[in-house]
Amino acid sequence: MSLDNLWAGWRHEYIQEATERERTAGLDNDATSCVFCRIAGSGPPSIDNLVVWRGEWSFVLLNAYPYASGHVLVLPLRHVGGLGALTALESAEVWAASQNAVAAIEGAYDPDGLNLGANLGRAAGAGIPSHVHLHVLPRWSGDTNFMTSIAGTRVMPETLQVAWQKLTEAWPSG
Ligand SMILES: [Zn+2]
Question: Fewer Cβ within 10 Å of end Cβ, the chain: N or C?
Answer without folding.
Answer: C
